[in-house]
Input
Amino acid sequence: MLTIEQAYWLIALFLAGAAILNLRERRWWHAAFWGVLAVLIAGGKFVLAASAAHHPLPAQLAGIGVIALAVLSPRMTRGTLSERDTAEREADALRLRHKLFGPALLIPLVTLLVALFGAYIVVDGVHLFDKTRMTLTGLALACVIALIAALWVTRARPMAGLSEGRRLLDTLGWAALLPLTLAALGGVFAATGVGTAIADLVRLLIPVDNALACVVAFGLGMVLFTVIMGNAFAAFPVLMAGIGIPLLIHRHGADPAILGALGMVTGYCGTLFTPMAANFNIVPVALLELPNQSDVIRAQWKTGALLLAVNLILMYLLIFRF
Amino acid sequence: MIALLHYLPLLGVLVVVAGFALRFNPVPVVVVAGIVSGLAAGKSVGDILALLGTSFVSERALLLYLLTLPAIGVLERAGLREHARNWIASLRSLTFPRLLIAYLGLRQILSMLGLTGVAGQAQTVRPLLAPMAEAAAEKRGAALSMEERNDVRAFSAATDNIGLFFGEDVFIALGAVLLIQGFYAQHGIELQPLQIALWALPTAIAAFVIHAIRTVLFGRRILHSGMQAAREGQAAD
Output
């Protein structure tokens, strides 16, 4: 059976390979960074299992690993990695043409097929795909198939998969890690009561008898909290428990379905404003080799601001009507 | 005094805001914020380390996108980006706004069907959408300046984000809608997923309209500055 755990092992293997390549080129900081990360990813299941069984030591070691990554991050300068000559790439592009799209499109296509039909594939009475996180398992499988197809189409050596993957990985540098680090911070914030403190603070500041003030406080609170946490999912329960349910639903009679849906998308507007949503706003800066960390946010904040206004108006007009 | 202690973990938020404002490397800033917020909440060092460790590894699915890199890298080595650019340049009627608006619509529809992992910054924006958008923008007859090229790339990344966010919220089987339903169920309010998803639809449509208009305006700006550059070039000859 294919499970998400095997996908994690694949990531660990890739990271370890990248570490070894960097080691051979005496890029010590990069080698250490990817090496530590590889161990953390490979040991993830063990850490969680031990933690659930009240053995804190593996989790504490993982915590030390996270701190080590944080210390190494500033050393991860982008540097110059040799890429193949532009003229050679152009020549290949003219020769291979649309064949190059095939493997690239296999990634979405295979992911799609697994997402749609994965649950129905049974081999020898066993489901081929584990149900938990099946789409992501499908993505991992799609990447392997796409790599094989890419090697076949381009007639590159199999090792090119690792060396070219390493080139992109080092281009990403510490940005590759940021989404994970921020999600971990979300976990820490939740466990230390940051959320409830913010909701209490907002309630201290608004006139609770005014429905409009409550709507605005709820909406802007969703945005603010999403900006801080980088994730509307983390903001939703906090703002709902603090303002949505006690004030809007119970005191002012708002419709829960509309409030929930519009509250969440209002939070999504906040995702467009914040560097904390690193996988959407910082990772592409590295991937597209843009000069400033805020370049993607600058391109999208106006859409976000206009949409926020639309959402607040919709919320005020709709939630008390139904 | 007790009230003050209740607000003390907010120091972690302060660390994050200050760190980003001062442009420190975000990874150590985030880890320090976690430690500060843990200490402020009165947790022991051992507890904080364990909390950091478990929070980190339990989110490791966020690194799955790294698996796309070897395949994309091999294709890039054989000229994938160059070919994407050449191909779009050969399609006369595919202008910059048309390309990006079509991508936006497609991304929203795929996300509404729950197919969020199908496209993304690593899978589709870097290898395909960004070079295609550059080629489409250069159909104005003048090459893009470095600054314009970066703007076009950033706008492509933004379009992917907006398509993803404001489609995903309408999908009923996972993610946002189930989180909302689950939260309400915990608080004694029973709702059907479809009831919630339908109310995200007006925002999804508004997002498409607003961003499509902005794409047209952005495309026009690139077009005009290109024509100006071309005229100045002719005058200089």
Observations:
- Chain B has two domains: 2-58, 64-236.
